[in-house]
Amino acid sequence: MLFKEKIIIFLCYLILENIKLFAHPVSLLMKSFHKKGFRLAKLRFKNLYPNLSEKELNYLVSQNFYNYSIYYLEIILLPLLIKFIRYFINNFQESYSILKDCFIQANDRGIIVITAHFGNWDLGSYIISSISKECNKEAFAVVESIRPRWLFNFFKWTREKAGLKIIPLNESTGIKSLKELKNGNVIALVVDRNLTKHGIKTTFFGRECIFNDGPSILIKRTNPKLFVAGLYRLNKNYQIYFKEIEYKNENSKEEITNLLIKNLEEMINISPTQWFIFQPNWIGDDYE
């Protein structure tokens, strides 16, 4: 290993360690201001682990907010992190090559990559966009229109820095997504929250929810290659999670939706405290 590369690895280590250090006070502030989020996170962990004590549940929620703070601090440093990403991802070159081979095999077919608010999905999107570019495909992300406007612009900026083109979530989202998939491009979808208030009634982690039917409609209409992906912390570095989802195009929307849910659950179960859902997401959340 060259001396210069050793220096880069050491600097990356210092950056990541300092992010962890600052994440502690940031997470305390988040918890104090986001009481509803704390309550909903606790309800989520109680559903996942019904036998845990109150103290154990509170600890998991604290870890959840701590990891969420790390995510936000990393987003601020995203332009720097993407330059050195290979140095803090386990088995980066091997994982990158496997992903690239999967994209190459798609040929002219469109590609849908589903993920969740898990780990650092924005940092992971840089890997997806880089591979897409090498395979002569454009990569797009559907982004919700959140308020205040400056926060929407901030997240739009982070996705564009990661190399993604933005499709705003509105009445034209489906049409634009269909067009890009038919052109053989890549669509990244964060699908663990339903922002449309309509969809398919199903079960997600054992509780009833209304799951957005947009992804299943896109899949049925364009027959894309379909993957689930995530980037989560494992020991001192990040680990890439990537898996192809096998499906039959003749399956119903409900069957495809449940297949997506099953694959999301498998990924999230690797590290539930790195899954960031602090808003009502299940039927009854507003009334608990």
Automatic annotation (TrEMBL):
Q: Where in the cell is it found?
A: Cell inner membrane
The biological processes this protein is annotated with in GO are:
glycolipid biosynthetic process
Task: Report the GO molecular function annotations.
Answer: acyltransferase activity
Taken from the record, one Pfam family name reads Lip_A_acyltrans
List the record's Gene Ontology CC terms alphabetically: plasma membrane
Bilayer-crossing regions = 7-30, 70-89
Matches recorded under InterPro entries: LipA_acyltrans
Coiled-coil spans in chain: none
Predominant location: membrane
Q: Which UniProt keywords apply?
A: Acyltransferase, Cell inner membrane, Cell membrane, Membrane, Transferase, Transmembrane, Transmembrane helix
Q: Does the keyword Lyase apply?
A: no
Report the protein name in the record. Lipid A biosynthesis acyltransferase
Look up and give the organism this protein is from: Thermodesulfobium narugense DSM 14796
